[in-house]
Structure prediction request, 223 residues.
Amino acid sequence: QQQVKQSPQSLIVQKGGISIINCAYENTAFDYFPWYQQFPGKGPALLIAIRPDVSEKKEGRFTISFNKSAKQFSLHIMDSQPGDSATYFCAARKDDKIIFGKGTRLHILP
Amino acid sequence: GAGVSQTPSNKVTEKGKYVELRCDPISGHTALYWYRQSLGQGPEFLIYFQGTGAADDSGLPNDRFFAVRPEGSVSTLKIQRTERGDSAMYLCASSSANYNEQFFGPGTRLTVL
Prediction:
């Protein structure tokens, strides 16, 4: 049973455009929802995170939108740049265990 | 400061052999986590240490997998009688306390022939 469902699997966006990645979860016990960025050959790095009592969090060009009633959350990357090309994972935490989505491979066209 | 380091970066072994993967957490971090990442998938939790003890080992797939952290710092993931299905990237992460941000190492890519 996949606890965190992520889509799309891959995404191509023009430079300067908005990249949107969506995630859904089932377990209402999750208490923290981080997004990770992973470049080839590297471990995942925390990008931005949100708690379920907040509907939106913005850090620079990155915004998380959180819909608790729908059990969905999304990452928006504004003004996408070629350097943003990476794999992005949404995740959810319960009891100090992080459950990852399957990832989205993002490619920003120059 | 130095981040999480993992050695070796790559390990190729034959089916049935024993392997050890090492993780050096960020100095002073009390919590340490092991994850396994298969190609095209997200990391999957294996085991979590708080200090020297395994607080949660529910993600270990079977009894061929074992991990230790004898002095509360360096950890070793041990895999006995390796199988081809064990081929994956093994990631280690550490945090300054449980429920704090986890910092990941670069991983060890294990290939079982």
